[in-house]
Amino acid sequence: MSAIKRLFDFPYHQQKNYKIADSLVTKKNGQWINTSTDEYLAKANAISRALLRLGIKKDDKIAVISSSNRTEWHILDIGILQTGAQNVPVYPTISEEEYHFILEHCGASYCFVSDAELLGKVNQVRDRLPELKEIYCFDDIIGCKNWEELLELGKDESNQYEVDARKDAIQTEDLATIIYTSGTTGQPKGVMLSHQNIVANVLGSEKRIPFNAGETIAMSFLPICHIYERMVVYLYQYYGVGIYFAESIEKISENINEVHPNVMTVVPRLLEKVYEKIHAKGTELTGIKHKLFFWALSLGERFEPYGKNGWWYEFQLGMARKLIFSKWKEALGGELSLMVSGSAALQPRLARIFVAAGLPVMEGYGLTETSPVIAVNDLRHGNFRVGTVGKPIDNVEVKIAQDGEILVKGPSIMMGYYKAPEKTAEVITDGYFHTGDIGEIDKDGFLKITDRKKEMFKTSGGKYIAPQLLENALKQSRFIEQVMVIGEGEKMPAAFIQPNFGFVKDWARIHHVEITDKQEDIVCNEAVLKRISEEVEKINDKFGNWEKVKKFELTPNIWSIEGGELTPTLKLKRKNILEKYKDLYQKIYGPKS
Question: What is the pLDDT of residue 186?
């Protein structure tokens, strides 16, 4: 186990210990196509040989952009890393200008894209990228070189000794990848992660994951360009887990029921949508079925682990699992026994309900700069607590600064920001990385995140407001899809709310409220405004008077990555949202004097 020091050691570890037939599995033309561990490594070595023949040198940068997770990405990843070059993954949904910035900033000599749409984006800026020698595509596209040309070029094994020499020369401290953070403001920063950073994170996290080595199937769909899913894929390889790549987020439900995975990583928004769908079906039930559904739900909302609610509760929960929750599990493939949630805060209510339903969701916490895992819950050994992100992993030290900021130290802390030593110095002092998150560690060692340091603000009355706490509470309402709390320097907090238009339409139909299909009309509808106001008031009751959202405005468009309101990891781009809705801001607070 200690022999794993570089990222490409993981598939070799799998080959030595498990040698599975479904190491990487992608659906093509309606068929799931398996790549075995042996084939995976044979192709990765062919890519390495081809790259050497193209003149790739140590520390060259190769950009990889894919709209979905797929086998080719991972073969290419290992093929690149074995040469001592760096894989620079790029978010597929960013703008052409951001593509230009990243590809120019890292000095990419080659770029791989998955499909025609991404090729079009890169081609738009290609004439401004003098260092970019060639673009290859995973799909067959007329006028673009195909990645299989490299497999062909690498078929001749006569230079494998060069690949082996390159591999042997790569040290664990060497740079492995540059990941450009999506950033809620300004240009993205290139986070430099070494082989050691990510390897340490994988080996530090593996004790928290209850896998049956060599017998587990995973569904992978979160963006592989983000360190969260990428680190987990290396972890899967370490444990001999068969990895099936979902076709798309739209087909995730269909794919789950084809593959029957045991484990998958998720983000809170996906769980919210799954729950909303289940709840909507429950409301359509009648008679005893309706009563049983909401009885089970009420039990789930009161869930506490380790039998803390007593034997009578546990007896009822057992009945609820047989009668109601078993159908939830069946809808998610029937075999799902673990979901690991990251990227944003998970509503404690959802954590309780899913764990009660026999679909354990373990919330974790981390950042790109920490490779990423800092802490994660584990249902075993008493290491799970609702409302926390679990205990820090063994090789990560966490302390809380005087102002409440979470500081982290350990082998998975980044090397720094690429070409930005001054920005690196701002966030790393005495070996501790300043996360920018506010939190606390309870007496049992569980870490709780309360807000982003930069996002906390003061009202004109001098009271501190933690917007994420309010936002997460408000998003528990099925009427609210997205929300941003505002009010820095103002007399009271307020909010921009993007309604859940689908749910609002269903509610209107059931309650015979006349609304049109136009979102611009829905946000002005008096009945809708009154109903959402009731939701806001109900949630306000849980907060102090100075924290309550006194006013709100509904926004007519759906917040999205493409629209600029959300980052690729679905965090709020607060500056963009404020600018976009400055008229609504004035409506709430009046014109600035």
Answer: 65
The DSSP-derived string for 117-160 is: HHHHHHHHHGGG-TT--EEEESS--TTSEETHHHHHHT--GGGH
Same domain, 389 and 473: no
What pLDDT sits at residue 1? Answer: 43
Among 203, 231, 264, give the residue marking a domain's end.
264
Q: Which of 166, 216, 251, 296 is nearest to 23 (CA)?
A: 216
Helix (H, G, I), strand (E, B) or coil at 44: helix
pTM (whole model) above 0.70: yes
Same domain membership, residue 211 and residue 92: yes
For 48-83, give the secondary structure using H, E and C. Answer: HHHHHHCCCCCCCEEEEECCCCCHHHHHHHHHHHCC
- Residue 472: CB partners within 8 Å, gap ≥ 6? 345, 347
- Is residue 272 located within the same domain as residue 260? no
CATH number of the domain that residue 114 is part of: 3.40.50.12780
φ/ψ (deg, to 5) at 65: -130, 120
The residue range of the domain holding 289 is: 265-452
Q: Which residues of the chain have pLDDT under 70?
A: 1-2, 182-186, 592-593
Distance CA 207, CA 210 (A): 8
One domain, residues 348 and 390: yes
Are 369 and 436 in the same domain?
yes
CA-only gyration radius of the chain, Å = 25
- Separation CA 178–CA 418 (nearest Å): 8
Over the stretch 278-298, which tens digit does the pLDDT of each residue have?
988 898 899 999 999 999 999
Residue 149 lies in a domain: yes
Q: Specify the pLDDT at position 255.
A: 95
Q: Domain check: are 72 and 161 in the same one?
A: yes
Question: What's the length of the chain?
Answer: 593
pLDDT of the residue at 458: 79
CB atoms within 10 A of CB 585: 21
The amino acid occupying position 193 is: L
Question: Which tokens sit at 147?
Answer: 């990645």
Residues 182 and 47 in one domain: yes
Alpha helices in 321-371 (DSSP H): 326-331, 348-356
The DSSP code for 321 is I
In angstroms, the CA 260 to CA 420 distance is 45
> How many C-beta atoms surround the C-beta of residue 58 within 10 A?
13
Measured CA to CA, the distance from residue 222 to residue 245 in angstroms comes to 9
Position 468: which residue type? Q
Q: Within a domain: residue 385?
A: yes
C-alpha to C-alpha distance for 486 and 494, rounded to whole angstroms: 5
Round to whole Å and give the CA distance between 393 and 363. 13
Task: Give the C-alpha separation, 353 to 343, whole Å.
Answer: 20
For residue 156, give every residue at least 6 positions away whose Cβ sits within 8 Å of its Cβ, in sequence order, or none. Answer: 49
Pair (465, 541) in one structural domain: yes
Burial-class residue 2 by CB neighbours within 10 Å (0-12, 13-18, 19+).
exposed
Would you call 498 helix, strand, or coil by DSSP?
A: strand
Q: Do 586 and 593 meet the contact criterion of CB atoms below 8 Å apart?
A: no
Separation between Cα atoms, residue 146 and residue 137, nearest integer Å: 5
**Looking at the 3D structure of the chain, how many domains does it have?**
3
